[in-house]
Amino acid sequence: MTAMLVGPAPYIYVCTRMRVRKSKLIPRDEYLRMLNMGLPEITRFIEETEYKTEIDELGTSFKGMDLIEIGLSWNLAKEYQRILDITPGFLKEFTTAYLRRWDIQNVLTIIRGKMQGMSQGKIKEVLIPAGELDRVFLDRLLTEDTPERIAEALKGQKIYPILARDLPSALADGSLARLENELYKQFYSDLLVDARSGVKGGPQFEEFIKLDIDITNIKSLFRLRGDNLQEEAGDMMIPGATFSVDELQRLNSMENQNEFIDSIKNKIKLRPLLEIIDEFREKQSVRQIEVALIRVQLRQMERMAKIYPFSIHPILSYLEMKKYEVFNLRALARGKESNLESESIKGYLVM
């Protein structure tokens, strides 16, 4: 294992601040308590937490689910920007690169919204301007009339070449799935290039990216197997980590579940992941498997943050934990709005 990165004061400061921020995240017991609340009570609970400023600011303009959706999105985006503001040197470079994933999500959300005839206001509610494309830029994209014009407005951005190449066929097919896969494959490829560029802290960043790729690919495999889709595996898989694309394609073609599990285990070295993969021999829903894999990923990120306390790991660990806090609160609120049973909602929570 490589030596710990003990940096100068700014690096120590920002990583210490991440520990403080983690201590303010909502604990498991509070989620369990919220499962017994109604939507108004959940709104009041959220207003008493770190989301108070956004809920108060938006409370005169929005109510109910709209207030929660927009308040959570605003808080997450602002929190990510605050972290960038205090993050120094190579840590800021890596953090900025990783947050570009939100640019992909936001652009695809806008294009999908336009394809479905949604209003600008409804699309804007679910955008999270946490990447390089800020709120002002995204607002400009929202004013464009067509997906083609949205793509043209992105000239000069990292995602533009793939958009220009693949958007026409995506629109012809009526599906953005392949375009989305290509954008994320390029995103991870760019991250690996950044990590291997010789910049200080690169090995730690690469360790995180490879874990993220492995978890993403394994989730995709279980999703494909749940849908009985074999031919799409090659298009969906992300190269650069433990498995090659050919290996992932071969895994997806295996009909026997035990053979499939054993083949994954033969390649994986991470003990917590090995243990959780073994549990998937028993019949579980795709959602249960995805949540279990996310939990393992978050625990491993926390472990890496403790091994390298002044590296990129404490920052990325907090970014992911904060993201899933927002996802949990959204799942709770949406579930309550839809009158779902508490046990059903609990299955969507990453705790």
Provide the fold topology.
Layout: H1 9-23, H2 28-34, H3 39-47, H4 52-58, H5 64-86, H6 89-99, H7 101-115, H8 120-125, H9 135-143, H10 147-152, H11 160-173, H12 177-195, H13 202-226, H14 233-236, H15 245-253, H16 257-267, H17 271-279, H18 286-307, H19 313-337, H20 342-346
Helix pairs in contact: 1-19, 3-5, 3-19, 4-5, 5-6, 5-19, 11-12, 12-13, 13-18, 17-18, 18-19
Summarize, please:
This protein has helices at 9-23, 28-34, 39-47, 52-58, 64-86, 89-99, 101-115, 120-125, 135-143, 147-152, 160-173, 177-195, 202-226, 233-236, 245-253, 257-267, 271-279, 286-307, 313-337, 342-346.
Helix fraction by DSSP (H/I, runs of at least 4): over 70%
- Along the chain, the helix and strand elements come as HHHHHHHHHHHHHHHHHHHH
Helical segment count: 20
Reading off the top of the CATH hierarchy, the class of the domain at 202-310 is best stated as Mainly Alpha
CATH topology of the domain at 202-310: V-type ATP synthase subunit C fold
Oligomer: single chain
Instruction: Give the class from helix and strand content and strand pairing.
Output: mainly alpha
Q: How would you describe the shape?
A: globular
Task: Describe the 3D structure.
By secondary structure, the chain is mostly helical. The chain has a domain at 202-310: V-type ATP synthase subunit C fold, CATH 1.20.1690. 72% of the residues lie in helices and 0% in strands. The chain has 20 helices and no strands. Helix 5 runs antiparallel to helix 6 and helix 5 runs antiparallel to helix 19. It is globular, with a radius of gyration of 21 Å. The two termini are 29 Å apart. The model is unreliable at 1-7 (pLDDT under 50).
